[in-house]
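Workshop exercise sheet. Pairs work together: one partner reads the sequence aloud, the other fills in the structure field after running the prediction. Swap roles for the next sheet.
Pair: D.N. / O.F.
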Amino acid sequence: MLESFAAFAVFAAVLTITPGLDTVLVLRTTAVSGRRAGFVAILGILLGCLMWAVVSALGVTAVLAASDLAFTALRIAGAAYLGYLGLMALWRARRLQPVEPPPADTAPLPAAAAMTPAAAFRAGLLANLLNPKIGVFYLSAMPQFLPAGVNALAGSLALAAIHVVEGAIWLSLVVLAVNRARRWLTRPTVRRRLDQLTGVAFLAFGLRLAFTRPA
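Structure field:
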């Protein structure tokens, strides 16, 4: 049993540290709104993963994998939400003036640009809940690592817990690293480039999700 869990831990760790939507979302949230918002966004992401893990363990996501209509509806909603995040980031980049702020320990951000903790949590949660690929991943990958003789529900939740813990560690490191560089990242010129890059990234993730088909 321990061998199976260890193999999944390695597999999940590689997926976790591979740059993706969650990393981009946490990076930008921390850069724009600070460490607290970054950690709150992580909570939303992890809750979304846990919810997908539970419904996957219960077999609910089998419906998504088998039903083109259900999968397509959720896929389109997720792609639309990611597109919204991308367009908003590009719009903010267009409005920022490329001038440097006066020297200060912490450069203040425009109030409208910063995300509230509630908004950061909602962004992390929805970015995961509206992505059916996460549920299909849990449903397809976890059974391959379940030890023989272990209860399917308990085993799946244990594997999901490993994935969530690894995600929490990795994304927390991202928050801490970005927060240390936040003084530089909050300069309007840098912020403008960051918004442009993350906006394009969100749009790319949205397009990729829009053309995803059930396995």
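Discussion prompt: The two ends are 28 Å apart (CA to CA). What would you look at next?
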